[in-house]
Amino acid sequence: MAVTRTFSIIKPDATRRNLTGAVTKMLEDAGLRVVASKRIHMTREQAEGFYAVHKDRPFFGELVEFMMSEPVVVQVLEGEDAVARNREVMGATNPADAAPGTIRKELALSIGENTVHGSDSEENAAIEIAFFFSDEEIVG
Fold it and tell me: Sorted alphabetically, which PANTHER family does this protein's record hold (predicted)?
C-alpha cells in the first residue's frame, strides 16, 4: 500500500474537554503521522463552506453552530492507506456502534458530539485539506 494523506478535525466537544493530545496520540499510535496541524476557531463562512454538502439536511444549522462553538484542530495525516486507517481508528459515527479502542467509542459523547471528523475518500481528503491548508503549511 502507498503512503497517502487524509484530513482530520478534532471537534469542539474534544477541544472543550482538553482531549487534543489524547486524540492525536490515538491517531499516531495507529500509524498516522501529523504533517500539518492548527488550532482554529471556525468562522460561520468556514463551517458553512466545509459542510455545504449537508446544507439541505435538517441538522445543517445545528452542525454549523456546533463547529463554531469552540476551537477545533484541523490536521493533515499521512500514512499507509491513510483514509481507511483514519476511519478505522475513528470508529463508527455513533459511539454506541463504535468498536472498543476507537476514538469515538473511548472519547465521544454522542452521535452529535462525536469528537472527530475524517475524510471518507482520497478525493474528498484532497478537497478538505485544500480548504484549510496551503501546500506550504504541510511539512511532512
Answer: NUCLEOSIDE DIPHOSPHATE KINASE, NUCLEOSIDE DIPHOSPHATE KINASE DDB_G0292928-RELATED
